[in-house]
Write a structure and sequence with these properties.
The radius of gyration is 24 Å and the shape is elongated. It has two domains: 211 residues, Rossmann fold; 73 residues. The strands form three sheets. A six-stranded mixed beta sheet has the order 6-7-8-3-9-10, with helices on both faces. Strand 12 and strand 13 form a beta hairpin. The chain is 34% helix and 29% strand. By secondary structure, it is an alpha/beta fold. It starts with a strand and ends with a helix.
């Protein structure tokens, strides 16, 4: 269990973090989302001991997170920390050895990860000769090579093509199934919505929402009623209850009282109803509402 409790951080007059708190349970994938400058990277750097908080604490399995505990973490920083002149396989093995693996174990883990991340054919290439997307894959392999007990990944999917994203998702899902807590930040909200057990939204250094996507949706209410009616005259929806937005044959009705049957009856009287149903808010909708 990773627990972040009441983190405060200032840079001069700027308050970067203002009481940030959340937890990542064993085997949970936690998506940490927010606009640029919201405090995601600062939180992760404090978690990994790169920065020191003004107050608050980071706990691991019920006690304060120590230097020894952080050595059992896998960390991927926002900025790549790779040696550009080293060959790919040598690079990953080197970091495996730094994290305590034997030479044989480091070679074995490296070979497995390079295959999983489609880098086997580039094992003998210098890192600096790779595309940015492939360098991102190497950085991920470095974070994973020593079989960490927890993962903290800052924008791990940035620059990856869909095939590489799928490969990484499978690796992370495998680690979660083994009980590893995974914390990652991302601006790709559709990906976070698809992958994560829980989500935390940070804005201007404060946590404005945490919970599962379903819990966050429930706080937003039922969403918007979407109705598509064909073969009808424009303006049929003008008298509907609620807030109405018309887009050709499509009508969106927000703030609907009751179960919406009045809307359905009006639509059926107006023409041929092709679609009638509630559109639940996406994580993007929830994020916009939370940070507004």
């Amino acid at each position: 269990m990773i627990e972040i409790d009441g983190l405060q951080k200032r840079y001069g007059d700027k308050r970067a973090l203002d009481g940030v708190s959340f937890a990542v349970r064993p085997g949970e994938m936690f998506g940490f989302v927010g606009a640029n400058g919201a405090g995601k990277t600062t939180t992760m750097r404090i978690l990994m001991g790169v920065l020191e908080a003004d107050s608050g604490q980071v706990c691991w399995n019920g006690g304060p997170l120590t230097f020894a505990g952080r050595r059992r973490f896998g960390y991927m920083p926002e900025e790549r920390g790779l040696y550009q002149k080293m060959k790919v396989a040598e690079q990953v093995e080197y970091f495996g050895r730094l994290n305590g693996l034997s030479a044989a174990a480091a070679r074995s883990a490296t070979a497995d990860l390079l295959e999983r991340l489609s880098l086997t054919g580039r094992a003998g290439d210098e890192v600096g000769a790779l595309s940015l997307g492939n360098q991102q894959r190497v950085q991920l392999a470095v974070a994973l090579v020593h079989g960490p007990e927890a993962l903290v990944l800052d924008e791990p999917f940035s620059g990856l093509d869909p095939i590489a994203v799928d490969a990484l998702v499978e690796v992370l899902a495998e680690r979660c199934r083994a009980g590893v807590p995974v914390l990652f930040s991302s601006h790709q909200l559709d990906l976070v919505e698809r992958l994560c057990d829980s989500v935390g939204i940070i804005s201007a250094g404060r946590m404005v929402a945490t919970g599962t996507v379903e819990e966050l949706r429930a706080r937003e209410g039922r969403g918007v009623l979407r109705v598509v009616v064909r073969d009808t005259a424009p303006g049929w929806a003008a008298g509907l209850p609620g807030t109405v937005t018309e887009k050709g044959d499509e009508v969106l009705v927000a703030d609907v009282a009751g179960d919406g049957q009045d809307v359905l009856r009006a639509a059926a009287a107006a023409g041929r109803v092709e679609h009638f149903g509630w559109e639940r808010p996406s994580l993007t909708d929830i994020f916009r509402e939370a940070v507004a």
